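User: Design a sequence. Structure:
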């Protein structure tokens, strides 16, 4: 009996409270829960974006170091190769000059013999 009276009083109080304070209806509750859920998801998404940007920065730093090392390697390889090509070019030039001098001496020898 006491339980029934307590239940009736509680029901009457909640009915009065809901009418006097314009209690939130179902649509507003759903909208509020969706807004809260979206806010939480956007916060998590923002954190993930910052983590991804941090990883991208590390990757770009490592790539830059690798490219610097490759540049140094190609410079160290290109210097001897350019030196060797210079030697080959100069030897070809010397050979061309030597052939020119030989032809001239032969032509002079032929002209003197005539």
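Assistant: Done.
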């Amino acid at each position: 009996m006491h339980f029934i009276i307590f239940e009736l009083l509680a029901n009457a109080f909640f009915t009065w409270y809901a009418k006097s304070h314009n209690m939130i209806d179902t649509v507003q509750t759903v909208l509020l829960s969706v807004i809260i859920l979206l806010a939480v998801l956007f916060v998590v998404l923002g954190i993930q974006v910052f983590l991804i940007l941090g990883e991208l920065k590390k990757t770009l730093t490592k790539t830059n170091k690798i490219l610097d090392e490759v540049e140094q390697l190609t410079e160290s390889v290109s210097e001897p190769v350019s030196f060797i090509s210079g030697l080959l070019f100069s030897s070809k030039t010397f050979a061309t000059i030597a052939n020119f001098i030989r032809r001239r001496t032969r032509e002079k020898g032929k002209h003197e013999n005539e």
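The chain has a mean pLDDT of 77. The chain has two helices and no strands.
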